[in-house]
Design a protein that fits this description.
disordered N terminus, 8% strand, alpha/beta, 5-stranded parallel beta sheet, 14 helices, globular, Rossmann fold
Length: 349
């Protein structure tokens, strides 16, 4: 809840924030943890679920908004000020030192990443009107496979209970999710991927080209130093010796489930290949965006119209059933976004 009498910020404290936008499980944590090593950038050190969703108006479980989609209509002056104040209070530098130790700091370069932000760019523009967006894209087969494994693991539950849905929900919550009831897991993750990428493409097309950059995940992991240097130059962020050294031996991200392997997606090959035709138009849009070409917007209706009957009939292995008998693992990071382990947060109740 917002505190009564809370004063909005009197001056702009966030100077040209960097916001990573990407589909879930596309490598955004790895990119975030790498950029955190720049001396110029401050962040809250984790995803920002709680910063947004402690505000009832922005929380899908409170019955006001119905998904993670947020637009400028949701961005009242009070909500924008509240979010900025929360971010400011939580910010740390690369050495995990809080802003409280830097009393002289009047403004910062802020770094933010949460996959739900793929559905919030229109909303975020009202909070950070000079933000710079980094659009990260991973090979669709690897991305979908990682999302499937995330659902199966039970470690990425974002909503333990939702209206119009049976069982817990994992990862980003797209609009019109109830239409996925009883559909196979591969269709659900395909829809999450589809909505994340098309929402990003729809919204970035309304910005000036100098406000965003495209980054390929494969290029990031195979040519890390050059890609990060290019990104830092484009965003006017310092690339110092510490960041350079970090890029030379890139550690696994903290959300990695199993060791990376190029053919790991083949474990789910049949599931993935069955839904790739549903994503062809989006893959074309991504390729065009990379070339500086903006295409016609796509939304939920186009996806559902493209799902063939053979993917809808006789499917009982829906996403709810995949994890309906699983409890949140006590040592997993809590679904609420607090950054605490479940046993020390909601699990303690």
């Amino acid at each position: 809840m917002m505190n009564r009498g809370q004063n909005p910020l009197k001056r702009e404290r966030f100077e040209r924030p960097l916001i990573i936008v990407a589909a879930p499980r596309s490598g955004s944590t790895l990119l975030f943890e790498t950029l955190q090593q720049s001396p110029d950038l401050w962040s809250i050190g984790r995803e920002s679920h709680a910063v947004f969703e402690q505000i009832p108006h922005l929380n899908p479980t409170k019955g006001i908004c119905h998904s993670n989609l947020l637009t400028k209509k949701d961005a009242s002056a009070e909500i924008c000020a509240h979010i900025k104040n929360n971010f400011w209070q939580l910010c740390i530098d690369r050495n995990k030192q809080s802003l409280g130790l830097y009393k002289e700091k009047q403004s910062i370069r802020f770094l933010e990443k949460t996959p739900k932000n793929s559905l919030r760019i229109d909303f975020l523009k009202q909070i950070f009107n000079d933000a710079y967006y980094i659009y990260l894209v991973r090979d669709v087969r690897q991305n979908l496979s990682s999302m499937i494994e995330a659902w199966r693991s039970g470690n990425f539950i974002t909503y333990p209970a939702l209206s119009n849905w049976q069982g817990p929900w994992s990862l980003m919550l797209p609009p019109e999710y109830p239409r996925l009831k009883n559909m196979a897991l591969e269709i659900i993750v395909a829809y999450q991927w589809y909505m994340a990428n098309n929402s990003i493409l729809n919204d970035l097309s309304t910005l000036e080209s100098k406000q965003s950059i495209f980054l390929d995940y494969e290029a990031l992991i195979h040519n890390t130093k050059d890609e990060i240097l290019k990104l830092c130059r484009a965003a006017d962020v310092e690339f110092d010796s510490h960041l350079s050294t970090y890029c030379e031996d890139l550690p696994l991200s903290k959300t990695t489930q199993t060791a990376p392997r190029k053919d790991k997606w083949k474990k789910n090959q049949d599931m993935i290949e069955s839904v790739l035709p549903l994503l062809e138009s989006t893959l074309v849009r991504i390729d065009q965006f990379q070339k500086g070409i903006h295409s016609e917007p796509l939304g939920a209706q186009q996806f559902f119209e493209s799902v063939p009957d053979k993917l809808l009939k006789g499917k009982k292995n829906n996403a709810s059933a995949v994890i309906q008998n699983k409890q949140m693992k006590r040592n997993a990071i809590c679904y609420c976004g607090s950054g605490k382990r479940f046993k020390h947060c909601h699990g303690a109740n």
